[in-house]
Specification:
heterodimer, A: mainly beta, four-stranded antiparallel sheet, B: about 110 residues, mainly beta, 12 strands
């Protein structure tokens, strides 16, 4: 099976702009989770989508939002970018909730490196 | 709440040395436990997992045992190689699933 893909791989934006990141999960996976990775805060959970519904949410402001499409592809959006949003954004897919439980093993994409200037 | 604590790095070892990276957790019930590895410029790769108490996960010479009594999941390898240099993350998945909670990561550097 093809792995998790994320586009774009690198992005440079300026403060105040908005950005949309895309993630295509492993075929058959219906759960997609997003994480933010920074040197200071480490890996933090943003949200999880399953069958087009947000099922879990982390502690991030409302500027961070996401959605999932009927083919399980997911996008996340960050509005009004701040310097502190510069990070590696990782997407992961899982068979959790689809009968392929395996203890919620998540498979990660290569990430999108966002730089906010 | 749920949390994961890892030993701080960086850890520097010589090739063929024994590796231990400590990981302890706090969680409600019995979560699933994972070790992920991240090589420079890449995403995370699952190294091994354990889904219930006393399970031993193993892969590529790495091992970790789910210890309920000590709430630990320490990563070990008998003989490290230069190619093992990476950042290692311990993580748990709560019973409700859908997310992973990570430790802060431990950077490992193996010298020839």
């Amino acid at each position: 099976k093809a792995g998790v893909t994320q586009t774009p791989r690198y992005l440079i934006k300026t403060r105040g702009q908005q950005v949309t990141l895309s993630c295509s999960p492993i075929s058959g996976h219906r759960s997609v989770s997003w994480y933010q990775q920074t040197p200071g805060q480490g890996l933090q959970f943003l949200f999880e989508y399953f069958s087009e519904t947000q099922r879990n949410k982390g502690n991030f402001p409302g500027r961070f939002s996401g959605r999932q499409f009927s083919n399980s592809r997911s996008e996340m959006n960050v509005s009004t970018l701040e310097l502190g949003d510069s990070a590696l954004y990782l997407c992961a897919s899982s068979g959790w909730g689809s009968g392929d439980e395996v203890g919620n093993e998540q498979f990660f994409g290569p990430g999108t490196r966002l730089t906010v200037l | 709440g749920n949390s994961v604590t890892q030993m701080e790095g960086p850890v520097t070892l010589s090739e063929e040395a024994f590796l231990t990276i400590n990981c302890t957790y706090t969680a409600t019930g019995y979560p699933s436990l994972f070790w992920y590895v991240q090589y420079p410029g890449e995403g995370l790769q699952l190294l091994l997992k354990a889904t219930k108490a006393d399970d031993k996960g193993s892969n590529k010479g790495f091992e970790a045992t789910y210890r309920k009594e000590t709430t630990s999941f320490h990563l070990e390898k008998g003989s490290v190689q230069v190619s093992d240099s990476a950042v290692y993350f311990c993580a748990l998945s709560p019973l409700e699933g859908g997310k992973l909670i990570f430790g802060q990561g431990t950077e490992l550097s193996v010298k020839p």
